[in-house]
Every structure is written in C-alpha cells, then in structure tokens.
Specification:
Elements lengths: L3 H18 L4 H8 L3 H9 L6 H11 L3 H12 L1
Helix pairs in contact: 1-5, 2-3
C-alpha cells in the first residue's frame, strides 16, 4: 500500500522531472511564477505543498495541462 508520504514524494519527483524536461532551472520557474527560487526548492523537496491554484500556475509554466499532470501522477501510483 502506498503511503501519503510516498504519494507526496511521487508528486515532487514528477514536478522535478517535468521541470528538467522543459529545460528550466528552479530559478527560471520561480521567475515565471513571480516567486523566489526557494519556493520551487521547497515544493520539489517535499518541504512545501502546493494548492490547486499554485499547481495550475506551475503547469502553465511547465507547458503541461493540469489534466496531463494528474494522469502522469496516477500512472506513477500504479
């Protein structure tokens, strides 16, 4: 059984992978979001969680739809 912590780690890894696939740095993502680099670092390390609005904004920057992000997340849970 997958724990809640495992699921949060999966999401953090997925967001890191999508950022890397987009050839963006943490600083680049943060700049596009109008946030400090530490904002990106904290959600990628699992120290901070994102709400739906923040996740939607992040998807826009990463060039992926929220729907596709959820689908990738669900596949990772399998």
């Amino acid at each position: 059984m997958t724990t809640l912590r495992d699921r949060h780690e999966l999401l953090a890894q997925l967001l890191r992978d999508l950022r890397n696939q987009s050839n963006l740095t943490q600083t680049g993502v943060a700049s596009a979001l109008g946030k400090p680099q530490s904002y990106v670092s904290k959600y990628e390390s699992g120290e901070r969680r994102l709400d739906l609005v923040e996740l939607s904004d992040l998807c826009r920057v990463l060039g992926v739809s929220l729907h596709d992000l959820v689908s990738l997340f669900e596949k990772g849970e399998e």
